[in-house]
Amino acid sequence: MSTTVPATRTRVGKYEIGKMLGEGSFAKVKYAKNIETGDSVAIKVLDKDHVLRHKMVEQIQREISTMKLIKHPNVIQIHEVMASKTKIYIVLEVVDGGELFDKIVKNGRLKEDEARRYFQQLINAVDYCHSRGVYHRDLKPENLLLDSYGVLKISDFGLSAFSQQIRDDGLLHTACGTPNYVAPEVLRDKGYDGTAADIWSCGVILFVLMAGFLPFDEPNIMALYRKLHRADFKCPPCFSSGAKNLINRILDPNPLTRITIPEILENEWFKKGYRPPNFEQREVVSLDDVDAVFNDSKEHLVTEKKERPVSMNAFELISRSQSFNLENLFEKQKGLVKRETHFTSQFPAHEIMSKIEETAKPLGFNVCKQNYKMKLRGDKTGRKGHLSVATEVFEVAPTLHMVELRKTGGDTLEFHNFYKSFSTGLKDVVWKSEENTEETRS
After folding, report:
1. Which domain holds residue 413?
2. CB under 8 Å, gap of 24 or more: what pairs does 247-250 form?
3. Residue 196 pLDDT exceeds 50
């Protein structure tokens, strides 16, 4: 049974929304593209009613505001926040290298030098967060992402705490995190230091990276807690003595004697091949968008628009050819080269647009898109200046589209030559009717 992919696209402000990247209990994360700059982003979408119903406004506002102030190369960046009447949109840096957890699952334990490199980036980021009064409280390989260059990025600050949440005794009091990675003092319900708790989780992560399995792992939760409280674990023989010593000092069940980040930074094993974080010059952070979203400022509301190609009726369709034959470029009676041609496709409109862009760029054309129209402009100067081609996708039926290509500048014969290569690249999306297929066979 075939399914029809909808031809509509969703626009939120200056962002065109794409495929789903992930979904949790409170939010969906979708891929998106900034249509003004062409930059890719990830957009976290939260339902306003859900946020209000669960009294999460203050928590989310504080989290977003704080995360906007954390500008570190090893922490996922928040670009801006928007809101419509029903949703909140958090625009994030998109990270396409997958989870560090997946790397371990696929390849097994990492070599010591590689594990140390990720651990160095992790400690740099955690140290920076702590200096800004932010404690993650759910550090684990699943919340550590990798970009296309293999750079580690901490994500998911949904359980993070802020210095404002510390009580008069100087401790945090909410037990949270993933049991296998959580510090033993967090489970005692007597308050804990967020800095020391995060360091413990970093130690568990280092162990997992180097061993390929958890230091504390029991099917029974009470047995797991007993192991955590005693720090009952053993390092595999493959660990170097330097790594063993550092892990033993991190996984100290007493938070008062546990190694601190300044001490980790001075550790000989840690310092091997160490590279300090490279901070880029960044613009001044503005929190105006956060205030506008949570103050319900109607002036700053964005609209979620569903876009679809212009419809074409049957009479318009009949008046145009349905084939993708190069003969359509020629006026048979006059023997002149035409300036336009068209073809039909059963692919969704957004896939046709992507295929046109993908085919045009290697041929030396710059691409400018707006809705379901596209302008292609050649890099090189021809006999009559730069060759320019306008394309537009029309909807004939929910599963049928017509694409029109029209020369808007440059030499017509050059358009014909361009089209020969261009048509070859597009052949996969062109609809071949039974009649055309029979003609081809004959």
Report:
1. 310-433
2. 247/203, 247/206, 247/207, 250/199, 250/200, 250/202, 250/203, 250/206
3. yes
